[in-house]
Amino acid sequence: MLPESVSGAVAGLGRAVLDAVLPPLCLGCNEIVSAPGALCASCWQGFSFISAPHCACCGTPFAEDLGPEALCAGCLIRRPRYHRARAALVYDDQSRRLVLPFKHGDRTDIARACGGWMARAGADLLASTDLVAPVPLHWRRLLMRRYNQAQLLARIVVRTTARRDVRLAPDLLRRPRWTGSQAGLKAKERRRNVREAFDIHPKWRPQVAGKAVLLVDDVLTTGATVEACARILQRAGARRVDVLTLARVVRPAL
């Protein structure tokens, strides 16, 4: 077995050779960057990362600080079923260039950086989470895509968090009913489309009661999907259901 210093030097040499042949590219624009999974300076400035101040419930960013317990207009009108939601990025033209290749273009390498951003954005959620569960795909969708992007993100989030007692539950939820695409549907139509579309895997059902569950997905649009998942988990006795996504749609203030 090689000493640690020698193995580290060998690994460093291997990375240098690989970078010389296949230099790391920016996740946003494919320009050459210093390290794999990084953004160039231009793309970094162009991405809208979400940080405080934001809605205490859904995480919608605020233009000014209204206090740590302030709610957005949407949550005041209709409080979501989940407890809190956080996202790393605003879903806009810039972040779409990252999300769509990851979701539909086999760019699974993007998950590592994105999962790290999500772990930082959801640090307050992860501090009290017991189980981390990805939003599931129907088996037909999984067969077509070959991977569940939410599961890849959930795995990186759990691996990145400093807590060692957070448990990844990759198959906690199932999606037995085919719902088709949610694209183009209005909020009420989305809620109707995913109603009773999810259930809990029997092997996990005894372990959900009294637990804080963190749902992971790629994009939060209207919240219909994660609310349908939250409803199922709450029926099973989950103590709290939070949501963490890579990006979220931010609608104009009312």
Features:
254 residues, alpha/beta, 13% strand, Rossmann fold, five-stranded parallel β-sheet, 11 helices, two-stranded antiparallel ribbon, 2 domains
Characterise the protein shown here.
Helix 11 (224-235) links the parallel strand 6 and strand 7. Helix 5 (111-121) crosses helix 8 (149-160) and helix 9 runs parallel beside helix 11. The protein has helices at 4-21, 41-46, 73-77, 93-104, 111-121, 123-126, 139-145, 149-160, 187-194, 205-208, 224-235, and strands at 85-90, 131-134, 167-168, 173-174, 199-200, 212-220, 240-248. The chain is globular and about 50 Å long. Helices cover 39% and strands 13% of the residues. With 254 residues, it is of the alpha/beta class. The strands form two sheets. It has a five-stranded parallel β-sheet with strand order 1-7-6-2-3. A two-stranded antiparallel sheet has the order 4-5. The protein folds into two domains: 1-46, no CATH class; 49-248, Rossmann fold (3-Layer(aba) Sandwich).
